[in-house]
Amino acid sequence: MNTLMKRDLYVALAFLAALLVLPLFIGHSRYLLSVLMNCAGLSVVAFGVWLTFTIGRINICQAGFALIGGYTTAILLSRYGLSFWLALPLSAVVSAAIGALIGSFILKLRGIYFSMLTISLTEAIRLSFLNGGEFTQGSKGITGLPQPFAGDSPLPMYYLAVVLLALGLLVTWRVHYSRLGRIFRAMRLNEDLAESFGTNVWRYRVTAFAIACALGGVGGSYFAVFTQSVYPQSFTVEHSIYYMLFCFLGGLEFVSGAIVGAFALTILFELLSQFQQYQTLVYGVLMISVILLLPNGLMAVRSARIEGPSGRRTPSRPAPDSARAEATENPTTGSSS
Q: Between 300 and which of 191, 244, 289, 296 could a Cys-Cys bridge form, CB atoms 3.0 to 4.6 Å apart?
């Protein structure tokens, strides 16, 4: 386990440990617990955006798949009377299936073209639910959803958020630090080179995107029961941009970067509420300043450069030539599209 991986692990475990014991210090404060629940849920959704970055795609449609997950849970609970514990995994499966279907076409695009298309996709999904008639209740949304726990205490929902955060972290960690993650990183560095060594680039693109969409579906499902409602406006393009910013701020080279970014920006926004009408302006200025001063994210503050064998300070990011070594580890043959 290298230094960066250890740092990633320690930060992730520190966050989970802190979340487990924080209720002992803040009591049953609904406001503070709701802020932490919001941060945990946003982190789960942001994991999907972070995972898409590992294949070299900027995903700005994660809110659309969170909306799919939220509506899937809402419809299963309100129309068919299913338990939330069945609706939650089904929401992830539906989001992943739709993501795989759409991704098999749009993932051929790269760069700004893919990003612009995902923005349009988020809006298309939102409009689909807005014009879904009686099935989705249109602009009225679906309200009055039951929560999976009885009683008035917010702690059960809080610990559910922590468990989902841990599961999302585990899935993303397992993917990133496995052979599959090495293939994703090889594709990010040079897709053509990875394909020339037998990597089925198209299949791995779709796999990464489907996992990302499943994480979005899980987050959307949680927010549906957390707020006991879901509307077409619950997840918009603006939310997709926030999920992307969480990853940028936290750090794209660390799995825990999505958690760090989500908690930092969400809590910062709450702290700036005292500025009232200037809240968004101050928030935007601070966020831009941090991104300009820390282009590699908060997690990379001390690891932006490391000492090389000759004593010179060298970048910690692997050289593009590593794509050849990583691609050769995959024996699968096939074409990208």
A: 296
Domain extent listing, the chain: 30-237
Asked if residues 269 and 279 have their Cβ atoms less than 8 Å apart, the reply is yes
Tens digits of residue pLDDT in 152-198: 889 999 999 999 999 999 999 999 999 999 999 999 988 888 888 88
- Give dist(CA 319, CA 84) in Å, integer: 46
Is the C-alpha dihedral spanning 286, 292, 295, 299 positive or negative? negative
Q: Which two tokens stand for residue 41?
A: 């849920």
Round to whole Å and give the CA distance between 228 and 216: 18
Q: CA–CA separation, 194 vs 200, rounded Å?
A: 8
Task: Indicate the pTM of the whole model.
Answer: 0.86
CA distances (Å), 160 to each of 31, 182, 256, in order?
17, 31, 19
Burial 44-79 (b: 16+ CB within 10 A, else e): bbbbbbbbbbbbbbbbbbbbbbbbbbbbbbbbbbbe
